Amino acid sequence: MFNIDQIVKALQTDPNAQRTAMTGAAGLAAGMLLSGGGLGRLAGNAVKLGAVAAVGGLAYNAWQNYQQNQQGAPASSEDAFIPAAGDASRQEELGKSLVRAMIAAAKADGRIDAGEKEAIFARLETMNLSADEKAWVFDELSTPLDINAVAARANTPEHAAEIYAASLVAITADTASERAYLDALAGKLRLDPALIAEIHKAAGEKAPGPAGTGSPAVRSSSNV
To answer: pTM for this one?
Structure first.
């Protein structure tokens, strides 16, 4: 099974910063989830699932608030966001989807340049990861940005919310290109603007403005 937490750690661009590209998911596991936050028994899973549970818990918390505030909004259970601790296959698949989303979001603003790739590869070499795990990260970093491929990983509405949440915590969302990417991704994932606002709130980020307001188009290997 892929060690998603170690991979997320390798992708951190600044280990001294509390919230920079790629640091959000790992920090959330020890912070928001383990401190309570009204997420109930998700805290127990956070210890075992780390970054996957952190992003899933953030998305679930946002979904709960969204459901409470929107008449007729679909209800969902925490199991739809957090795979069971013993379900290694689901954990790995979701973990890969979330890491792919993080990497794509970082690419949207050109954060992962040649120098950063070299730094990430150097960090990977120091970690107890298999050759397959290292090769997978290398492939993901080297693949051109494809927002459609990111969105295609969302096989449920809950996973769509998690993919958006992972993308949000991977970047600072303070540039026009980052905001444009998140706007485009939300559209591809077909997320309700009210749910997006709750995800931003749960992540401690400023609520997004109306989609398409003065943000440049996002370019990728597939049309947005």
So the answer is: 0.78
